[in-house]
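Note to self: user wants both folds in one dump. Writing first protein now.
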Amino acid sequence: MKNFLSPLTKIFSSKPSIESEIREMAYKNYPNNVDTQNFIYQKHLAAYKFLKTAQDHTLKDIAVKNYPSNYMMQQHIYNEQLAARKFMSSATNEAAKAVAKEKYPKDYTAQKFIYKDLDQQ
């Protein structure tokens, strides 16, 4: 099977598209495994499209800051932060909640971790 993820992809395009950037990344990480290249390409492209439509820019900023060139991890972090924020909004131990928010005002996953630790004491 011919490798469709050739590193020559960028040569034939005046401006690299997101698709070609993801193809190149998949090729660089898995140069000898076309099936894995295809899998990584599809997963990263789906994650990129998800993030383009994600509504919460604060959470998106957190995800991009942590993983600037990994769309799969950005989506994972976005979803993790979203779930943690929902958890924190329904948390009932106000003292533990205040400590967690004070320690990590912009990281809901860390807040959830601190909250759970304090809430069990």
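First done. Writing the second protein, which came from a different request thread.
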Amino acid sequence: MCIYIILVVIIGSICRLYITKEFNILKKITLLLTLFSTVTLLAQQEEVEIKIQDTLYFNQCNSTSYQYIDYYKKTRFEEKDTSDLTHIYNWDFYNAFFNTGDFDVLRLPCSMKGKYGIIKHIMSISNEKNKSQTVVIAMIENNISAAYITEKAFLNDELIYAPKK
């Protein structure tokens, strides 16, 4: 066993001496390509401002439901629910939708993959650690269902953003 280890070390040293020049050149080329790729990726990343009326498509889903998107579906309607919410936004939308009727609330099921929601409201809330985070409310079906979307949904590629033009 000891002879085997010594042989491996000797062979490795001989190979290292022989290919050191070629390996250094290859290593430098690899480093330059990696650096170029990193700079290119950083240049491609741009900050996007999410706006009311933009569209969010429900993207990849790796289990039975999305991890960072809640699904609110009305189960009981009131007379006030008959108004069309298509052209209502911000707090007016939030109050008109959430302050009437009853809801089933669950994680957005993966069956919604490929469907979309229209951004109706954007707000900042504090979590249990008093850290502020942005929440987006997107209407899926008019007057019937909405998605409650946290920042982590964007960071984990659960959504595809399609700005309104």
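Dump finished. Worth passing along: Confidence is low (pLDDT under 50) at residues 26-44.
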